[in-house]
Amino acid sequence: RPADPAGQLPLFVDDRDLIPRGSPDPDGRARVAAELDILQMEVTEHVLESYRPMLDELGVIPASQLLEVRSGSEVVVAGIRIATQTPPMRSGKRVVFISLDDGSGCSDSTFFDEAQQKAGPMLFGTRLLVIRGRTRRTGERGVSIQAEDAWDLKEMWARWQDARRQGGGGDGGADGVDDAAQVA
After folding, report:
1. Is pTM, for the whole model, over 0.90?
2. For the region Disordered, what residue ranges are annotated (predicted)?
3. With respect to CATH, is domain 53-183 assigned 2.40.50.140?
4. SS3 content of the chain, % helix, strand, coil (to 5)
5. Domain coordinates of the chain in residue numbers?
6. Which of 105, 149, 152, 161 is within CB 3.0–4.6 Å of 126 for a Cys-Cys bond?
């Protein structure tokens, strides 16, 4: 390349042939993560969809089906945290209210002292949660969950996948959540 009078090389170099063309398509989880990071919302699919095989095996109930469940039934729900509230209570004890979005709707869970102790600091430190508890009717079209325990969905997923690779498996349902949580 010819130098200019001051001995400098030209600024513009035709290196288009050196630039790699195309990039590998991201998997579903990476695509949704990028959408959340850039757009602050999912476009391709709900963030929970990539965890669907485990959630189905564990018998996780979609929020849209909670009204069909009898009051007092044990359920497992999962979702992305959309709200956490700890309002002051007359008794002075702390009660934690968590709302999850699972793509089919929202579920509301209430954590009293014992459930808070079981869940520990994870209760406030993770966005993706699996919650086990008992349903409670709050009106004709309302249902909430009195939480008994909660787990970090990402940690549970990693342990569930490890157990799958090692040939383990659960039988689903609420006991399956305990198994997955222990595996997790």
Report:
1. no
2. 163-184
3. yes
4. 35, 25, 40
5. 53-183
6. 152
